Amino acid sequence: MVQQSLIEYIQRLLQQGYDAGTIRTTLLNAGYSSYDVDSALRLAGASVHKPVNTRLLVIVFLVLLVLSAGVLVVLKVVQPEPVVLSFSVNLFSTEVSAGQNVVVNIDIKNPSGRKTDGLIDFVVKGSAGRIASITSGFSLAAQTSVPASIPLPASAGPGAYTIEVTVSYGGKTSSQSVSFEVVEKAAEAALPSEALKEEAVEEARELQKTCPSGCNDLNFCTNDACVEGECVNSPITPCCGNNQCEAGESASTCALDCSERPISTDEIIASAKDMAVSNLPKAIDACNSMAQRALIDGCLSSVAEASGNKEPCAQVVDSDIRDGCYIPFAYKNDFSVCEQITNKYMKNSCLSLAEISKTQPQG
User: Fold this and answer.
1) Percentages (nearest 5) of helix, strand, coil residues in the chain
2) How far apart are CA 299 and CA 265, in angstroms?
3) Measured between alpha carbons, how far is 32 from 295 in angstroms, rounded to an integer?
4) Tens digits of per-residue pLDDT, 49-62?
5) pTM value > 0.70
6) What are the residue boundaries of the structural domains of the chain, listed by start?
7) Mean pLDDT of successive 10-residue stretches along the chain, which has 363 residues
8) Which candidate among 51, 128, 142, 334 keeps its CA 20 to 30 Å from the CA of 287?
9) Do 293 and 324 meet the contact criterion of CB atoms below 8 Å apart?
10) Nearest partner of 108 among 84, 89, 87, 122, judged by Cα
């Protein structure tokens, strides 16, 4: 039982203005037990606060600081970079007759390498306002080319026109405009009716062999193909980029899954582009280490652009990306790529540019 005299002593000290902590320390130094002192302080009406272990607080603070820094690092590694697309607009001809189609090609690049879908709006405007418009969809991982053929009304008069191209994806929009001229339509020889019928029948046959809605199941671990009008999606094993280092994969063949630290597609593509000028074969090997076909194709196209060498384009499997890889070389007067382009609009544009170049004075 706590001595009443100790309680009264503490009460007098409190009345004199001493705080409970000072009183407690003094009594402990005088030989009283901590139990008796704390009990007496409570009975005397003083709140008891045990001394804070400053060293422990510092250690706890440092541990929390290290944990917070670790969480921030993990969040930075795990959180994907935002998808920001870039695109360019190329007209196949700057002169078009009324009633014909104006053909344009959109080259889209996706530095993030993540699958992205979107829409492209094409609006043709003249002095009287809008005269034509169409909308096309697109899907890409690294790079794609989207050709479009916009019918011009027969009533479009000669003069200057613009095509406003707006790319929309993931809540973002970006626009560019290009100009062209409508010219007087040259007289054309009419095809015999039988020839027109035969051409229509052939187009119908070809259409039956296609898959108009596309066969992309948005799974990069499958090979997607259209076989006689039917979609076939075949699993890819092993599949580089699925965050599993599977049998048959290694750090050299699939850095995305098997490297000691997380490596992003952006790092691999940037490294390949840096090597492209001095060591093209090594740059191509770096692209192939990603194993995902869409990522490889986009990387090879970037390497071709960075090196100014069309050789990597031949290894691109996706026809849209391959055509988009070749066509910039035609704009630089290398028309040997025309025969490698499969898209008929883009190929015709390439051949037209080649013919136009022959009429230009040599500088």
Assistant:
1) 40, 25, 35
2) 9
3) 77
4) 555 556 777 787 78
5) no
6) 4-78, 86-185, 193-236, 249-359
7) 79 84 84 85 72 67 80 59 87 86 88 88 91 89 84 89 93 92 69 66 66 72 81 83 81 76 82 92 87 85 94 93 92 91 87 79 57
8) 334
9) no
10) 87
Alpha helices in the chain (DSSP H): 4-15, 20-29, 34-43, 54-78, 193-208, 255-258, 265-276, 280-288, 293-307, 319-331, 344-359
- Which superfamily does 86-185 belong to? Macroglobulin (MG2) domain (2.60.40.1930)
Any alpha helices (H) in 166-318, and if so which ranges? 193-208, 255-258, 265-276, 280-288, 293-307
The rounded distance, in Å, linking the Cα atoms of 44 and 129 is 91
Which pair of tokens denotes residue 25?
A: 């320390």
Q: How far apart are CA 121 and CA 94, in angstroms?
A: 19
